[in-house]
């Protein structure tokens, strides 16, 4: 065999060996839900429960339905003024939005929390 061909074969083998030794990428841990996503879900659920369209609620608030849709999908960070306006249009007290948000966030966190290895005490 030609010495040049030997070096080409060796180089190709070295590259194959080098690429096969790369560690497998780790799967990313699921990210906790963002508050804007949780609030958006709640607002969308409330709007749908009332059988109201995006257009109807957006007009009542004075914003575009595209922006309201992005708020509902958690893609836009809505200001407190926007949240209050949407809540008012849905006749949903802002305190209920905040309370539901806390409960959903806690539920997400509880579902993801690892089990404790500690001893549980029970009252008799």
Question: Would you state the CATH class of the domain at 35-109?
Answer: Mainly Alpha
Tell me the structural class.
mainly alpha
Name given to the CATH architecture of the domain at 35-109: Orthogonal Bundle
Content of β-strand: under 5%
Q: Are there runs of 5+ residues with pLDDT below 50, and where?
A: none
How much is the radius of gyration in Å? 27 Å
The chain-level mean pLDDT equals 81
Distance between the termini: 85 Å
* Residues in helix, %: 55-70%
Along the chain, the helix and strand elements come as: HHHHHH
How would you characterize the overall build of this protein?
The protein has helices spanning 3-20, 35-49, 54-61, 65-72, 80-89, 94-112. It is built from 6 helices and no strands. It starts with a helix and ends in a 12-residue tail after the last helix. The protein has a domain at 35-109: 434 Repressor (Amino-terminal Domain).
Task: Give a brief description.
The protein is mainly α. It has six helices and no strands. Helix 2 (35-49) packs across helix 6 (94-112), helix 3 (54-61) crosses helix 4 and helix 3 packs across helix 5.
């Amino acid at each position: 065999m030609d010495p040049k061909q030997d070096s080409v074969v060796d180089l190709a083998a070295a590259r194959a060996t080098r690429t096969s030794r790369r560690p497998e990428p780790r799967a990313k841990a699921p990210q906790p839900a963002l508050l804007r996503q949780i609030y958006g879900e709640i607002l969308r659920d409330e709007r749908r429960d009332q059988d109201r369209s995006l257009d109807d609620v957006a007009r009542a608030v004075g914003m575009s339905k595209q922006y309201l849709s992005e708020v509902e999908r958690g893609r836009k960070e809505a200001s407190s003024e926007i949240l209050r306006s949407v809540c008012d249009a849905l006749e949903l007290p802002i305190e209920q939005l905040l309370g539901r948000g806390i409960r959903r966030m806690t539920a997400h966190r509880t579902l993801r929390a690892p089990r404790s290895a500690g001893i549980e005490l029970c009252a008799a």
